[in-house]
Design brief:
There is one protein chain. By secondary structure, the protein is mostly helical. The protein has a single domain (about 5-445), classed as MFS general substrate transporter like domains (Growth Hormone, Chain: A, Up-down Bundle). It has 17 helices and two strands. The protein has helices spanning about 5-10, 15-50, 55-80, 85-100, 110-135, 140-170, 175-195, 200-205, 210-220, 235, 250-280, 285-310, 315-335, 340-370, 370-390, 390-400, 405-425, and strands spanning about 435, 435-440. It has a two-stranded antiparallel ribbon with strand order 1-2. Strand 1 (about 435) and strand 2 (about 435-440) form a beta hairpin. Helix 3 (about 55-80) packs antiparallel against helix 15.
């Protein structure tokens, strides 16, 4: 009997190609970290040059999140229809164009259009790379690899922050977007060379030439080839993205989307408003970029720690715990004094727990949905969540404009993480993904035999 290549990859030691592919997904998420925060780094300069107030700035800060929400929902489904690889490549082209056009903007409307375009590319790519990181991993390393992919975000922000701090000493805010566009473009040939189409996706969808593509990838990974594709019925092969709303998956979809929505709102309040808050305390824009860098150093560390712990402990319990602590740390941030060292320390601690929560949610998303809707489910949760995160900079801006002080604003927005933890309490997950299908939902997928749920 011809072995199922998905099971072969799940059981086998990861090859160098798999390691490189996962590493590239980390780099791609690092682009997300830099691209999304580019507008935060540039915000003080834009506000000064164009004379816009906090409420108007909050709207500008939210625009790429609007695009990201649309891109995640629309293009996440595309990753399930046409494949992970072409979706990633298309999104990189869109991101590059959006970043490089920002410096030409002469007003808020034009700037908003290019930030929405950049967000479209980021949103679609996030859904595709989360699926790719899970599907290029074996079962032993899956949670760790998805967590590493997720911490690419703060790593990109940290490295970008170091570069931006230097750029802002010598150049204006437009240089940030030139740099970001160039680095984004450099990833296109890397994906072409080192990220083949997912074997899991090819085995499930079985497009024309799927057997040859799977065998070429297996050969590059050092595995024996197969003589026939896994048996998948026509109904299974053509399952659509709307499967996330079927009876077997609807509760999972609601809970993970709600949790992501609420926590990301808290997460983005820190990321979007730190530079402006620090500048308003009397510090230079380069110092504000440095504080945001420390927040992301904490975020990268927190994500790595959670990924390592998830190999031994229940990922849902870990995520609930860090979400609760996130609530506390964001509230503490609201009481920070105008001392650069203290601000940096508190932001690093807040970043540690808020990003660990994001990493935990990504690991949960990779487990929650089967192959045929993994991109769609992840895209819907991320898209809806990032749509909700549009509220963070806007809500912060309007609360500040209404006369609320920082302690009150931080306390109100920190509640998102606490309610997200409550939502995850009701989510049930299984410990592994078998043959590319989440065993938590295997009963709804006739292609696999369900394993007993333990969570």
């Amino acid at each position: 009997m011809t072995p199922d290549p998905r099971e072969l990859l799940s059981r086998s030691k990861m090859s160098m190609l798999q390691v490189i592919a996962v590493a590239i997904t980390i780099g791609l998420n690092a682009l997300d970290g830099f691209d999304v925060l580019a507008i935060s780094f540039a915000a003080p300069g834009i506000a000064e040059e164009w004379g816009i107030n906090r409420a108007e700035l909050g709207i500008v800060l939210s625009m790429e999140l609007v695009g990201m929400a649309i891109g995640s929902i629309a293009l996440g489904g595309l990753a399930d229809r046409i494949g992970r690889r072409p979706t990633i490549l298309a999104c990189l082209v869109v991101m590059t164009g959006g970043m490089l056009m920002v410096p030409s903007a002469t007003g808020m409307l034009e700037l908003s259009v290019w930030r929405v375009l950049t967000g479209l590319g980021i949103g679609g790519m996030l859904a595709a790379i989360n699926a790719a990181a899970a599907e290029f991993s074996n079962s032993k390393r899956r949670d760790l690899n998805v967590s590493l992919m997720a911490i690419g975000y703060p790593v990109g922000a940290v490295l970008g922050g170091l570069v931006v701090a230097q750029l802002l000493k010598f150049y204006e805010w437009r240089s940030i977007f030139y740099f970001g566009g160039l680095v984004t473009a450099l990833f296109i040939p890397l994906v072409l060379l080192f990220v083949p189409e997912s074997v899991h996706w090819l085995s499930q969808k079985q497009p024309k030439g799927a057997l040859d593509k799977i065998n070429r990838t297996l050969t590059r990974m050092g595995h024996p080839t197969i003589t026939a594709l896994p048996v998948v019925t026509e109904t299974q092969r053509k399952q659509s993205a709307t499967g996330i709303f079927t009876r077997g998956l609807i509760l999972t979809t609601i809970l993970v989307t709600l949790a992501y929505f609420l926590h990301i709102t808290t997460f983005y309040f820190i990321l979007k408003w730190v530079p402006k808050i620090v500048v308003d305390m009397g510090f230079a824009a380069s110092s504000a970029a440095g504080v945001l860098t420390w927040a992301n150093v904490g975020g990268a560390t927190g994500g790595a720690v959670l990924g390592l712990l998830a190999q031994r402990y229940n990922v849902k319990a870990l995520t609930i715990g860090v979400l609760i602590i996130s609530t506390v740390m964001v509230t503490v941030f609201g009481h920070v004094e105008a001392d650069l060292a203290q601000i940096s320390l508190i932001c690093a601690c807040a970043g540690f727990f808020t990003n660990a929560g994001v990493v935990g949610l990504y690991a949960i998303l990779a487990r929650a949905f089967p192959t045929h809707v993994r991109g769609s489910g992840t895209g819907f949760a991320i898209g809806t969540g990032r749509g909700g995160s549009v509220l963070a900079p806007m809500l912060g801006g309007f609360l500040f404009a209404a006369g609320f002080e920082l302690p009150s604003v931080a306390f109100i927005i920190s509640a998102g993480s606490l309610i997200a933890a409550a939502a995850l309490f009701f989510l049930k997950l299984s410990p592994d993904i078998d043959g590319g299908t989440s065993t938590a939902n295997a009963a709804t997928d006739p292609a696999v035999t369900p394993a007993p749920a333990t969570r």
